[in-house]
Design a protein that fits this description.
By secondary structure, the protein is α+β, with helices and mostly antiparallel strands. It contains 19 helices and 17 strands. The strands form four sheets. The protein has a nine-stranded mixed β-sheet with strand order 4-3-2-5-6-12-9-8-7, with helices on both faces. A four-stranded antiparallel β-sheet has the order 1-15-16-17, covered by helices on one side. Strands 10-11 form a two-stranded antiparallel ribbon. Strand 10 and strand 11 form a beta hairpin. Helix 1 packs across helix 3 and helix 2 packs antiparallel against helix 7.
Length: 574
Amino acid sequence: MAFEPIITNERVDDIPVLLTQIEQMGVQKLLDKHFPTHGNWKGQSLGEVAVIWLAHILSQADHRLNQVQAWASKRLETLKRFVGEGLRELDLTDDRLEAVLRYFNCDRNWYSFEKELGSSLLQVYNIQPERVRLDSTTASSHCGVNPEGLFQWGHSKDHRPDLAQVKIMLSTLDPLGMPIATEILSGEKADDPLYIPAIERVRSTLQQSGLLYIGDCKMASMATRTEIVSGGDFYLCPLNAKQVTREKLIEYLQPVWNDKQDLTAIDYDYADGKNRDIAEGFERKVHQKIQVNDAEDISWDERQLVVRSFAIVQAEEKKINQRLQKTSDALEQLKIPRRGKKKFTSLEEWESAVAKIIKRYRTTGMFQIALQIKRVQKVKRRYLERASQTVEELSINLDFKIDQEAVDQEKKLLGWRVYVTNQNPEQFSLKQAVRAYRDEYLTERGFARLKGFPLSLTPIYLQREDHVTGLIRLLSIGLRVLTLLEFQVRRHLGKNQEKLTGLYVGNPKRKTARPTAERILAAFKEITLVVIEVKNEVYTHLTALSPLQQRLLVLLGFSTTIYTQLDGQSFTPE
């Protein structure tokens, strides 16, 4: 009697790369160590379930719980090679994944896990931390506001003020962009008070001083700067408009305009290999002295870096010209009488209308406005029993012109910004400081990955806040996976002064020494495992690895056996 073979296909793709990377990071063991489960937990451990779910998220760019079980059921043979033959579909049900999120919601366990994970990764990948970037973002949800919970109204960085939001504070290491500490807070909180707790978390993990903390102007509060100095660390951040007023900035720049202050040109090496001048500036010293308590003062020398960005000058000058033109057009329209348009009959009405236009287009002080009043005597003719009479009417004429001197003064201020740092100029020059701050895109890129592709936090489908907290923490592990994948390949390419080709669809000859994690993982797409079941025997055949895929595995430090172990297997199913 002949037996018809049962043939199934499994999409292997980047799953072995992801699971090997996560295993190398020690994520599963640390999760099981720091998140002990209840005695009723059966099947695969919490760490194993979380690792498989993380592989699904990174591979499919989808965090929805109801997609994981079906995805795993079509890849069981592949997944079993990495987590054991005991893996079943029921280990990845919605209920099991929700339980994982509830465990991750425990702050104490998460902080201890994140601390040990961070210190472990530094040793495993031989990372010498020097700079830490601090920044926050928001993630919006349609779940509504909970008066005492995470989701609140607040300043939305997603430009969705109509939605409740949660705030995420991320501390990342240069040059990886790898998270070292994650804070999840209610959405209404201001950014300023979040920096000191974040710095304390970083110090607890790294256990070292002398780090440079880089942040935006919200990190520039005197309390935060004092905390950084008192801990033996350094800071770099811009001052906001309240800390450096327009008048103070003019005072700083007066020597430049009088040709008494030399400027240092600042260049930047772009990813395309080109070097361009991006800014110019100078620095000045300020001595800071802060009374911490009744018995102690902290003092230090602070460098104020006064820098003019060429790109900002060009962009802002264009905007000023557009605002001037819009103001002129609106004032001209004000002078034209139209049917149905209110006629201004008093000087106060004209002044109010002009002021609204000036305010709307933010051109205060850039126009010379003249309202000329004419008094005209008019004779009203006799009508029926009404006698003729002489009346006086007011005629108001609007005259305006651009105040070019004021506009030129405004343009002279464009692009200038004051940064502060307490690091020694011999160790951290003006050029180095500007270049370091310009790399702020590393944090923004991490947020883009976290909220968009491939971690896909937003839109948030979950409703329960403990689930949301757990999910964000799970995705922060995913962000570490991406940054370390990228770091390893770039580091090896840099050592060998080598460039990769074949990563760009449509341009296979294009070379890069800085491939992204997304392109690295995409290079493993279309790898398929064919599973043939005949009688009680199962045979497997794997798509052959391409030269590019083999080279990427070498750069990652992975053996090709993470794929070839799936090929040519013969076994008896349970």
